[in-house]
Amino acid sequence: MFAFPPGLAEGLGEASEDPLSAIEVLGLGSGLRWEKLGVDLHVPSLLVGVFGTRSWLARQGGAAKSAAKTIAARANGAKGGRPRKRHWRFN
């Protein structure tokens, strides 16, 4: 059995229960289709943690907000923020 919260997958996060329940299993279980939402997902990709296209996944990175991230960001800012990049020159 494999389950995941709909919010993890591209195109399913904002869907209500009715369209989410209308799921079609494709082939021998290698694909999932939500016709009403226009979403198709590849089961082997889901099993390795790929829940959307590369561009969609890139936009999701770092989007999570938590109290711990807020505290860490403020502590880092109090220290002067990110260190400057150093450009090394080899002669």
Short characterization:
This protein has 91 residues and is of the alpha+beta class. The protein is built from 4 helices and 3 strands.
Task: Please outline the helices and strands.
Elements lengths: L16 H5 L2 E3 L4 E4 L4 E4 H5 L6 H7 L6 H12 L13
Antiparallel strand pairs: 1-2, 2-3
Description:
The protein is α+β, with helices and mostly antiparallel strands and 91 residues long. It is 32% helix and 12% strand. The chain has one domain (6-78): Uncharacterised protein PF10387, DUF2442 (NE0471 N-terminal domain-like, 2-Layer Sandwich). It has a 3-stranded antiparallel beta sheet. A hairpin with a 4-residue loop joins strand 1 (24-26) and strand 2 (31-34). The protein is elongated and about 60 Å long.
Question: Can you tag this structure with a few keywords?
Answer:
91 residues; alpha+beta; 32% helix
Query: Would you report the number of β strands?
Result: 3
CATH superfamily descriptor: Uncharacterised protein PF10387, DUF2442
What string gives the helices and strands in order? HEEEHHH
**Cα distance spanning the termini:** 58 Å
Number of domain modules? 1
CATH architecture verdict = 2-Layer Sandwich
Basic shape: elongated
How much helix is in the residues? 25-40%
The major pleated sheet works out as:
3 strands, antiparallel
User: How large is the share of residues in beta strands?
Assistant: 5-15%
| Mean pLDDT over all positions | 87
